[in-house]
Automatic annotation (TrEMBL):
<comment type="similarity">
    <text>Belongs to the histone-like Alba family.</text>
</comment>
<dbReference type="GO" id="GO:0001682">
    <property type="term" value="P:tRNA 5'-leader removal"/>
</dbReference>
<dbReference type="InterPro" id="IPR016166">
    <property type="entry name" value="FAD-bd_PCMH"/>
</dbReference>
<dbReference type="InterPro" id="IPR016167">
    <property type="entry name" value="FAD-bd_PCMH_sub1"/>
</dbReference>
<dbReference type="InterPro" id="IPR051958">
    <property type="entry name" value="Alba-like_NAB"/>
</dbReference>
<dbReference type="InterPro" id="IPR036882">
    <property type="entry name" value="Alba-like_dom_sf"/>
</dbReference>
<dbReference type="GO" id="GO:0071949">
    <property type="term" value="F:FAD binding"/>
</dbReference>
<dbReference type="InterPro" id="IPR002775">
    <property type="entry name" value="DNA/RNA-bd_Alba-like"/>
</dbReference>
<dbReference type="InterPro" id="IPR016169">
    <property type="entry name" value="FAD-bd_PCMH_sub2"/>
</dbReference>
<dbReference type="InterPro" id="IPR036318">
    <property type="entry name" value="FAD-bd_PCMH-like_sf"/>
</dbReference>
<dbReference type="InterPro" id="IPR006094">
    <property type="entry name" value="Oxid_FAD_bind_N"/>
</dbReference>
<dbReference type="GO" id="GO:0003723">
    <property type="term" value="F:RNA binding"/>
</dbReference>
<dbReference type="GO" id="GO:0005634">
    <property type="term" value="C:nucleus"/>
</dbReference>
<dbReference type="Pfam" id="PF01918">
    <property type="entry name" value="Alba"/>
</dbReference>
<keyword id="KW-0539">Nucleus</keyword>
<protein>
    <submittedName>
        <fullName>Alba-like protein C9orf23-like protein</fullName>
    </submittedName>
</protein>
<dbReference type="Pfam" id="PF01565">
    <property type="entry name" value="FAD_binding_4"/>
</dbReference>
């Protein structure tokens, strides 16, 4: 360890400047503006220690890397003929020089040391920019250090000598003599404190040595830093190796597949940014392409998963080094290029191929005067993905979307295209919402109904009026065909204390309209589409800031809610085809969000339902008191149940003791919200204690104990049936 007095005239401050020009010893900033720096010379100096064939001369610069210096020096010193190492550095490289010497002393026990300090002269010449001025020469004297480490004994009478182990003995005696003292001083002097650019060095002030007024270089910190960087280097090498392995695997797969489809290495990320992986991706365009990829994956022993529009929050996609199959480009198998067809008009049966979006299916329904009783709001989601993930819509008597499937064709692990129908009921209940566990879904057949026109009402209620009175909530749910409730917190922004009860709720009610009513025309939807696009574009631009500027969330929600209430969806009623009513808002996918959703069989117990809702209301109020605003919105949808083993709403299935009705309640936040992880865990854990289960396509895997909760007897019957 190098002991350096605090008041050493040549080390603190780091540099001394002298100027030699016609007797002047200082130059003002204004004068120096008339000069441009020119030649720089380093004055030659005699070495402080003799260097011969048994010595290694190490020159340390400010930009040198410790790991490179140590690697070279340690390799040299392993040679038995090498007896001495001399470490030399000056200016900002002094601390790095000391570090290298200390690390070597700890790696090689028994080294003798001599340390010498001196100044090093640098001459700088400044050329005049103004006629009449003379050339300047500026002398800079900077401190320099040389440290000799020797395997053989050195002259102990030489100034700067340290015997092997002297530092440890010094510390032992000092620590035994002194009582523990509460530290009041800074532990570490940083780059800013020491006015040095050397980020690899750290300085520590030891309480025990304050009387000696010395600084000690904390080599443990530096050694830990080296280990950290070595670990990073190892990880980098590992990543390079893994990439090469993936490239070799991709090459073998491509050779087995042939020229189509092309494979490529892709860093995949889902829509919300909650899941990512390095995968081998492909986009087949035909049945044959799909079968070739499956066969190649089998032969190489590689797992394969599919991705539609990547809107799921759950980790249901490919893991690292697996195959990710994108099916949006698969060509039509129905003729005339169409990927949707009316397969049986009399029974209202519609075939839908992989790659078809919910919006494309909506347009088909309107054109053919048909309706699917329910669907998701996002019209950009893949219909096969919606069904495979057991997703749902809204409607008191509507089941999940997968429950309207009457046939599904799936490529199994051998590449065979299998057809599943309700003839094998147990198998069909498993396959229609299987998250891809049965293979690659090729197409589905949906059972639809004749089109109906509905009356959609937009209402705004005070939160305290609905969320505090069970009878009011019950009336909204049971007296309407579908009930959809949104709460955007902080929309009652005021100068006083915030009270969630003063907020307003956005409520959408849907009921069948009289037969004689005409629906809105296309001009209405064109104008609404324009408004949705403008509002979502604004939200997309602002949303990333919400995660960083949490204090702005209440103001943003207030402004957004005013726009919603008075511009986008003012109070009133409209008549529209049911398909348009389901997909009432477009361009939502331009603004990714994070989401946790739970499903409860509330068994018509609306007091219990209020308890479930108030888990969120109370948390929002509690977090707001700490100036934390993690929640962007709360969404509630009421539906019937699901017959699929993994479908949303299966908890309410009467066949297994359910009431026949469930509530799907969802909390939503902007990605990157600082307190979202803690907030969602707080809410999720309390919802778990109240008997809720997560929507398996949403974000739930971060909740503590969630896997054990899903396996509990009250929720696991359908899961066990799926396993069987």
């Amino acid at each position: 360890m190098i002991f350096v007095p605090k008041d050493h005239p040549k080390l603190f401050p780091w540099q001394e400047f002298t100027c030699q020009f016609q007797g002047l010893t200082t130059l003002t900033h204004q004068a120096m503006e008339n000069y441009t720096k020119g030649e720089t010379r380093e004055m030659e100096m005699e070495p402080l220690f003799e260097v011969d064939q048994t010595s290694v001369d190490m020159k340390v610069n400010a930009g040198s890397k410790i790991r490179n210096l140590m690697g070279y020096a340690m390799n040299k010193v392993k040679n038995p003929s090498v007896k001495r190492v001399v470490w030399n550095g000056s200016g900002k490289a002094i601390t790095k020089t000391v570090t290298c010497a200390e690390i070597m002393k700890r790696k090689i026990k028994g080294l003798h040391q001599i340390t010498k300090l001196r100044n090093r002269r640098i001459e700088e010449f400044w050329e005049p920019n103004v006629e009449g001025l003379e050339r300047l020469k500026v002398n800079r004297d900077i401190p320099a250090i040389s440290i000799l480490l020797s395997k053989d004994p050195l002259d102990a009478s030489t100034p700067g000598y340290q015997a092997p182990g002297s530092f440890e003995e010094f510390w032992k005696s000092e620590l035994q003599q002194q009582k523990p003292v509460k530290r009041k001083h800074k532990k570490y002097y940083t780059k800013k404190d020491m006015d040095t650019d050397d980020r690899e060095d750290g300085w520590q002030e030891f309480q025990e040595l304050l009387d000696f007024e010395v600084f000690l270089l904390d080599c443990k910190l530096l050694n830990d830093d080296m280990k950290k960087k070595q670990k990073q280097q190892e990880n980098l090498k590992s990543a390079v190796t893994e990439k090469k392995d993936m490239e070799e695997l991709m090459k073998r797969l491509q050779e087995r597949i042939g020229h189509s489809p092309d494979l490529e290495i892709e860093h995949f990320e889902n829509w919300a940014g909650t899941y990512s992986a390095d995968v081998i991706s492909c986009s087949p365009i035909s049945k044959e392409d799909i079968q070739k990829v499956i066969a190649a994956a089998n032969e190489e022993g590689v797992k394969l998963r599919c991705a539609g529009t990547s809107h799921s929050w759950a980790p249901v996609f490919s893991d690292d080094h697996q195959i990710l199959m994108r099916l949006g480009k698969v060509r039509s198998d129905y003729g005339h290029g169409a990927k949707i067809r009316l397969s049986n008009r009399s029974r209202n049966e519609v075939d839908v191929m992989v790659g078809v979006t919910a919006g494309e299916l909506r347009d088909f329904q309107v054109k053919n005067k048909l309706q699917l009783p329910t669907n998701v709001i996002l019209d950009t989601m893949s219909m096969v993905g919606v069904i495979s993930a057991g997703c749902h819509g809204v409607g008191r008597n509507a089941m999940s979307v997968s429950d309207y499937v009457i046939k599904m064709r799936v490529f199994d692990a051998s590449g065979e295209l299998r057809t599943y129908t309700p003839d094998s009921q147990a198998m069909f209940r498993a396959v229609i919402a299987s998250f891809g566990c049965f293979g690659v879904v090729y197409d589905i057949t949906l059972k639809m109904e004749p089109e109906i026109v509905v009356k959609t009402e937009t209402l705004y209620y005070n939160l305290g009026e609905v969320f505090c009175y069970a009878d009011k909530l019950k009336s909204l749910v049971e007296n309407n065909w579908s009930t959809h409730i949104f709460w955007f917190p902080y929309n009652s922004l005021s100068v006083g204390d915030y009270n969630p009860k003063n907020d307003e709720l956005w409520v959408r009610l849907t009921n069948k309209a009289p037969p004689s009513v005409d629906p809105e025309d296309w001009d209405f939807y064109t104008w609404r589409d324009t408004k949705d696009y403008i509002s979502q574009s604004s939200l997309s631009a602002i949303s990333p800031l919400m995660g960083e500027l949490q204090s702005m969330v209440p103001y943003f929600n207030w402004v957004a809610f005013q726009s919603l209430k008075y511009v986008l969806y003012p109070s009133g009623e409209i008549h529209q085809e049911h398909a348009h009513s389901v997909h009432f808002r477009k361009h939502i996918d331009t603004t990714p969000v994070d989401s946790v959703e739970f499903i409860f069989d509330y068994d018509d117990d609306f007091d219990r339902l209020l308890q479930i809702i108030h888990v969120v209301v109370k948390r929002v109020d509690h977090y707001e008191e700490k100036d934390e605003y993690p929640l962007l919105a709360l969404e509630m949808r009421f539906m019937a149940y699901s017959d699929a083993y993994l479908g949303s709403g299966v908890l309410g299935n009467p066949a297994t003791g359910g009431s026949g009705h469930v509530i799907c309640i969802e909390i939503i936040s902007s990605p990157g919200s600082k307190e979202w992880d803690r907030f969602s865990k707080d809410v999720g854990l309390e919802w778990m204690s109240l008997g809720g289960v997560p929507h398996l396509a949403k974000h739930w895997d971060h909740l503590p104990g969630i896997y054990e909760h899903i396996q509990e007897p009250k929720t696991t019957h359908e899961l066990n049936e799926f396993h069987i």
